[in-house]
């Protein structure tokens, strides 16, 4: 559909793309990946026609429409939300205006047999079909569905866009873009300002309703679920994989291994050739062979290898000073702004060493509760911070608090202590501040670079309670992996406010959901929480059904059968069909819940057998010291398995009661 032909881009004599060619096909869902600075955003701008390449071309067939969502944009604030979103359907007004113009031309002509008159008739017929197709959908319903899917409430529709933050205004632009249904969607980091529920809605939209999609995102779960093709930009070239991101990672590793082997073989060939030239350079009898080898050496096309050294850095937090057993105790905590109650009666306890997540739609109070914990704003109720708790806080605006007049290196050097000072260059390199970048002044950095720098500062502080508010928004996947591993190994307490499911998976053991003015506790990881939330939604649907069936049963009894309208039997049939579909879905969910319990029981039995085997070996007395570490690890594994079994059993019992 769209053909990228021999594309090259140079900045300051440095090649960003070198003779790149590929095709975007209809229904392709492409993840555009690569290191920061590889040129992903530039590629999207070139396809969108907003930037011109140094050479090469982008061929877009006539009639193919392109929609582009950049990371940052200028947004007008003169209309309400619904008025702004209604602009997505301005094309229908344009088609009506064109239809009127063509009809005026038709009325003024009398050359009924001419080819031009027939062409005009054909244009009017085609335009009429396009208008009918565009108006066949309920525009108002589509706007409402899209806005609610992206997290807006109906009460927000008539509010001026000026009242919303930049992140919410970006959602308005995304809604407009999705409603135009372009042939090709270009999305640059669309999830940065979305919560988990909105991301899941966007995932479903892109999978089921979008045409071709080219996507840049650092949200691994999101691109894994949406895409079926991965294009990697590396060292000015592209590598095209017809698979989603997870499979691409495996194939890429294989390619890098092949690349390294080819590089090593070539280096050996070059070394052997150079040694031959050096050895026989001044021997007249070998002059012909020497000249031949020199020409051979000049013709070799040097193999380049991707630098992936950041993945080898094992970043660790300083040991956490011991705090009290309960770093945070909340009792009936509430916060209101005027008449708007953000949340109330929040009661929970976070134990020392726990890693928990705050999740929920934007505006439901996650960051507000964090500010209460930090004692930055007043609140109602009781909020106690435990003995000897030292908090490390990463706020969403943390980057703005950095000193812009000092360098990147000095920013970190001033907070680093002990042996870590000898590794500052390595740490900066892992967070993409290698080489000359470490000598830049902070004030010239982009917003994303400042965010990463603020994160490094936090990683070096000796604290025992980490509070991270959306820490991954500007981090690429490699850097997120480094941060995630560092947090997992941190022996203190962690509160993470995040919408990144993949980042939270395996990191947190408890989730607090914010919504409807409440804070609910859910034991288990992020995917256990999401599954339980789906189950809860289904239960609510089932509970609403008896009333529906009861009403339909009463309706025919209230009147004589002869007086029934012809539509009544059809309505009853529709109700029965809907109920049957829901029953099938319920049976499917019940089997899934039962299977989770069974799998958990089998896992417990397997671990208990492993423990019994280890204990039998210990009882012999002739064992290696490491066996006691194995025994302790298995017991911890058993505790986790028991917790998962307990959670699965509770879910199953709740489901059966509903």
UniProtKB/TrEMBL annotation:
Keywords attached to this entry: ATP-binding, Coiled coil, Nucleotide-binding, Repeat
Q: Which part of the chain is the ABC transporter domain?
A: 2-260, 328-541
Q: Which Gene3D superfamilies match?
A: P-loop containing nucleotide triphosphate hydrolases, Valyl-tRNA synthetase, C-terminal domain
Pfam families recorded: ABC_tran, ABC_tran_Xtn
Name the PANTHER family for this protein.
Answer: ABC TRANSPORTER ATP-BINDING SUBUNIT, DRUG RESISTANCE ABC TRANSPORTER,ATP-BINDING PROTEIN
Its family remark reads: Belongs to the ABC transporter superfamily. ABCF family. YbiT subfamily.
What is the protein name stated in its UniProt record? Probable ATP-binding protein YbiT
